[in-house]
Amino acid sequence: MAYSEKVMDHFANPRNVGEIPDASGVGEVGNSKCGDIMRMYIKVEGNVITDCKFKTFGCGAAIATSSMATELIKGKTIDEALKLTNKAVMEALDGLPPVKVHCSVLAEQAIKAALSDYYTRQGIDPTPIVGVITECDHEHGCGCESCG
Length: 148
Fold this sequence. Notes:
single chain; alpha+beta; 6 helices
């Protein structure tokens, strides 16, 4: 299983690791099959994600996708962050081995879970905006909303 240089860089030198004590939203997702757990923290000011941090327990690909996802949404509007897909995370990392694609799905879901928490804290039902965060094993063709 070969990883790209970008994956190795984000694994060895992850960006935005940590917590945001006064986060606007916190989301946690996991994959019971592989044991990866991602927690994303976002700080929102004026509809812009001004800061994003993560804590991930998992493999190198899980850490790399978490790191890249935070880089891709920091400084973006909420609407832009909601459009982030696992495919965009994978492309930004110059690809992932097929057996590790589920890590990029978890990164996408962690962002959406944090945004869902943000809306809930605002007294807004997040489901029509963010969708339902489903748990599955994210194997190819599993059929969940994230995997298709």
